[in-house]
Amino acid sequence: MDTNKSQRSQNVQIVDIFDEFRRDLDEHNDRRERLIKASRDVTNASKKVIFLLHRLMTEQGHDARDQSKNAGQCGRGKLREVQAVYAQMSHELGGDKFWRYHRAVSPGLQEYIEALSFAHYLEHGTLITYDQVQATLSDTSGVPYFPLPTEDYLLGLSDLTGELMRFAISGIARKGGRTKARDVCAFVRQCKSDFEQFTPFVRDLSKKQHVTTQSLEKIEDAVYAIVVRTSEYDLPPEILDDIVAQSISNFNTGAATDKTKRNRRDPGSGDEYDGNY
User: Fold this and answer.
1) Residue 176: exposed, middle, or buried by beta-carbon count in 10 A (0-12, 13-18, 19+)?
2) Average pLDDT, stretch 224-228?
3) What is the pLDDT averaged over residues 262-271?
């Protein structure tokens, strides 16, 4: 009799242990799904900010410097919505949980860094630093919502080069666009050189460097065409702008296929520039 009681007691204990395992797994899966959804929202919002920045930079009738600065500030304002999402996610990612769920939030984080760095470049003409990105992912007291992984920072910046290529070529025929294209060309070349030293240590960075190389080649080809065409004519700047526009009309401003970036997007997230603000 005592033996049966003991056996039943042990069975109850085992069932209780497995119930606890079940609750832990359910909690893990539910948290992971919430974070994936939040990351998808971040990705979509960041894409829309990038689209907005490109659209603002193609509007006519503005001083180029003021236009670039205003576009960057507008983009930063829109990204506060993304930062609010990360603030809400912070309780889900406290302590060591961030590294457990890093893969669930990494795609959105890279897209956010790409949009933020593009807005920063338009406003300041420089590359945003790691500390500046981390500061945007911190509360009002300066406490980070979670530690910013170095690899996500580098991969997000690597994606920036494709947006800079589009920006340089799409505005090349505008007033000041030829000078801006040369500046962007030098900037992307420096980024490629600086990122090269990290490729052995960051997964997927070498693939993104390949895409950066293709983007750089497109900017260099466009700048070369400008130099050749402008050296052939002694014409007023407005006529020269028309000639330059015709010369670059055959350039494809779509970034080269970045399989790494495309694979990190959610299947239902839409096209890269789907929707706008």
Assistant:
1) middle
2) 77
3) 46
